[in-house]
Every structure is written in structure tokens, then in C-alpha cells.
Amino acid sequence: MDNAAYSWTRHGYDLAMEELKKQCEPDWVWLSKIPVHNWARCAMDTNCKTDLICNNLSETFNRYILDVRSKPIATMLVGIYDKLMVRFDGKREGAAKARWDITPYYTERLELMKTYSRNCIPKRADLGLWQVKSGDATHEVNLATRSCSCRKWDMTALPCNHAVSAIYKAELHPEDFVSDFFKKPMYLNSYKPVFAPMPQQHGWIKTDTEDIMPPGFKDHQKGRKQEKTRKGKFEVPKPKENSRMATITCSNCKLQGHKYTSCSVPFRSDLAIRKNNHKASRSMPAPVPPPSSSSSATAPAPRPPPAAPRNPTTAFAAPRTPFAAPRHTGFRSYFSAGANACVGRDANVPPIPGISSAGPSCSDVQ
Ligand SMILES: [Zn+2]
Ligand SMILES: [Zn+2]
Fold this sequence. Notes:
By secondary structure, the chain is mainly α. Helix content is about 30%, strand content about 5%.
């Protein structure tokens, strides 16, 4: 059932459902009665730009309000209000100092897609239209409509590995094809509303309407409900999550005993950019030698050398929304200024006086 729910394409869904029917027909009958677009990724609307098919959002919010959730309703609402007031302020301040242009999570995902794109072979069919071969599959990538027939780009608004390979072949930058939803101007915009400080009961104004009194409480004979389990007399307490007793696992090499920051193995691409505070690397990939398999006769020539500046006016122009400011630096300066210069910063975000653009770490702004 998971295979059917998580499949990106209708073809994969059909195969998974056939398999399910073979394994357990009553399950298949039960599942077939539920509308597909309610539970299977392949039939979901591509407008929401997310590939989540579980209710993580409500779980996360529940965890977020856990310390105030059990309080009386007015206290709980004031508690949630205070949390959001502080959170929005922190996010605004953090994002203004951060070095990233695309939000950290999507920067890391894009770096992985860049790595995977090295296994794809793009061939141009028309201006902005590409046929990309990846393993046994062949996909249609349309740079104008920002779409790939594998549907990952359509659903997540982040170029898939097929799209990235076509974008590089067209000598463009994958960062320019990431949706504005995941860029700094939209991030700042979503945290723009200011929660004004709110007076509590001492600041209330007397009105003509009748006072609303709290509901009458029952007499609690049995006392407060027990919230925590009582430890046994000889029970050894569990190590806390942040305890040094727990073993850490390196997310780079998967060995235990050290963090990825002190790993001796070369970094995975998404961890490398995390260590660099998610500052986008806009360097073109090195030329890839043609695969030495039997398909080498049809393989295209290796990629052109990276520093081949093209006139942006003649290059294929990606569709832009009003949020994206016109690039005034040009491709030449991207290369001459070096991959790590501050060309990724968006012109729409004015610098805050007294805070340099290469500010402190953004690790507190997830
Ligand atoms: Zn794709
Ligand atoms: Zn390691």
C-alpha cells in the first residue's frame, strides 16, 4: 500500500495496486473505494508544492503548543500568542542576517539533485524542451512550464535531477528555477505580520455587555490527574535525549561516535552546503566523461567547459514572477566574482543598517 501511496506516477501506482490485489484482495477492494486524490501522491494536486502525504503539520503544531495546551482556554490562547510573537520576530531577524537565498532545507535538497543529475543524459528537443535519459527511464523536461514527466518538479517546485541536468546543459543555473515560495523574499513576507504586544486583564476596558463567567468547576475529590509515571525504587533513569551517554551517528559516513562536522570522509553535497551556511554555490559542474557502457555510441559529447559566459538576453529566459528582481550582475560577473561571492543575495531585500550581509550563522533559522 505504501508503494501505491508514495508513487509519483500513475504507472507506478497501477503496478503497486496490482501487486496489492495479488497479495490481499479485501484490502484492495477497501482501498479502491477511497478517492485516489485523497491518499495517493500520483493523483494529488500539484498546486500546493509539497510532496507530503501524511499529517506532519498538525503533529508539529501539537508538539509546539504542548506546554500550554493543558491550560485553561484564555491562558492557552495567550500562551500561543506569546510564542508566535517571539517566533515571528526571531524569524525576521534571523532571515535578515542569514546568508542563504533559498531556504536551508531546499538548498540541501537541490545540492543532492545536482549530484544525482550527473547520471542523466539530456538531449534538446526544442527551445526549453528536453528529453532526459536516466537509467532505463526517459523523461520530458519543459523549462518554460517548469515541469518534468516524473512529476517531482511539478509537485515540489524544486527541479528534479532530470531538470537539473537539462538546466546545466542549457548553461543556466538550477537556483533560478526553484520556486519563489522557497526563496528569501517570500520567507520574509510570510513572517511579516507583527504580533503587537497585548495587554492582559489589567488593560481590559469595561463594556455594556454582560460579563462572561468561567464554567463552574466540579469538586475534584481525587486531586489532580497523574501526568507522569512513577519510577520504581530501583529503576535506572533513561539517558536524556541530549545526554552525552547517547551514541551519535555521523550523517555523512553513517559511522557512530562523531558528528558530520568532524568527519574525515569527503562531505555529501547537501552536508557540504550546510557547513557553508547554505550559501548557494552557482558554479557549473565539471565536465563528465561519457559513460563507458554499451550506450556509449549514442552518448553526447562531454559538457562544455564551465566558464563559457553567454549573453543572458539570447539565452533561454526562465519565466519570472514579480518577486524575482532582474539580475543586474549578468553571467560574466558570476564567474569573475567567484562562486562564493555574494551574488546570490536578492536585490529585493534591503540590507539592514548595522548588519553585514555575511552575518552570523543561520543555523537557528530553520
Ligand atoms: Zn524529473
Ligand atoms: Zn563520519
